[in-house]
């Protein structure tokens, strides 16, 4: 996640589907060009009880999108009487991005959540959508994807999935200058949204 157009692809975000949930992970570094501007940036956000997004791109654009989506999620609950599905949230983001392409949000989003089952989508800055079993985005994505492609298998347990997601982001931290300062890791299951603590993540990497 960067604060300038010169390095707008900086950061590494990862998502993967497990047997009982979906996992999103990201690093904590924010950069502007070749300068580190923050070492404690949040790049994964809860939108509703069973919905989360991860963003790679411009800080202001990502935070603006998060505020809008949280408001839309509350309105949806009030009007429809239930939480948005993962697909509805994804379609909303895609429509917003496509409608403002070229002048809108300079960001790439991963959407993870649990409705009838765990689901994961990738949305580029122009609103293009793909449904994924595993995905990475940002400047360190090549390093993260190398780990995911080698070790991902369908039906992973949550524990194995968390370990793999942490390993993938950690690989990018070691090789990509725009990725660093630790890992945020979130799990979304039918029970809801949970962010792991630093000690839990440290244990996953041991």
Q: What is the mean pLDDT?
A: 87
Number of β-strand runs: 12
Strand line-up of the largest beta sheet: 10-1-2-11-12
Rg from alpha-carbon coordinates: 16 Å
**Count of helical regions:** 5
Walk me through the structure.
There is one protein chain. The chain has helices spanning 59-80, 86-99, 141-151, 158-175, 198-205; strands at 12-17, 21-27, 30-32, 35-38, 44-48, 51-57, 107-114, 118-123, 129-131, 134-138, 183-189, 192-195. The chain is an alpha+beta fold and 206 residues long. The strands form 3 sheets. It has a 5-stranded antiparallel sheet with strand order 10-1-2-11-12, covered by helices on one side. Strand 3 and strand 4 (35-38) form a beta hairpin. Helix 3 runs antiparallel to helix 4. It starts with 11 loop residues before the first strand and ends with a helix. 50% of the residues are buried. Residues 1-9 have low confidence and may be disordered.
């Amino acid at each position: 996640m960067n604060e300038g157009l010169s390095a707008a692809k900086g950061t590494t975000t990862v998502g993967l589907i497990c047997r009982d949930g979906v996992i999103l992970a990201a690093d904590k570094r924010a950069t502007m060009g070749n300068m580190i501007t923050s070492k404690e940036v949040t790049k994964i956000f809860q939108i509703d009880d069973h919905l989360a997004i991860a963003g790679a791109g411009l800080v202001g654009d990502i935070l603006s999108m998060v505020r809008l989506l949280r408001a839309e999620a509350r309105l949806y609950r009030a009007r429809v009487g239930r939480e948005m599905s993962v697909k509805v949230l994804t379609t909303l983001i895609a429509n917003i991005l496509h409608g403002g392409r070229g002048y809108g949000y300079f960001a790439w989003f991963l959407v993870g959540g649990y409705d009838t089952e765990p689901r994961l989508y990738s949305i580029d800055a122009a609103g293009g959508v793909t449904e994924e079993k595993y995905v990475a985005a940002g400047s360190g994505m090549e390093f993260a994807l190398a780990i995911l492609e080698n070790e991902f298998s369908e039906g992973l347990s949550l524990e194995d999935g968390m370990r793999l997601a942490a390993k993938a982001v950690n690989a990018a931290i070691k090789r990509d200058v725009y990725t660093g300062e630790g890992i945020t890791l979130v799990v979304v299951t039918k029970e809801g949204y949970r962010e792991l603590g630093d000690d839990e993540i440290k244990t996953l990497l041991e």
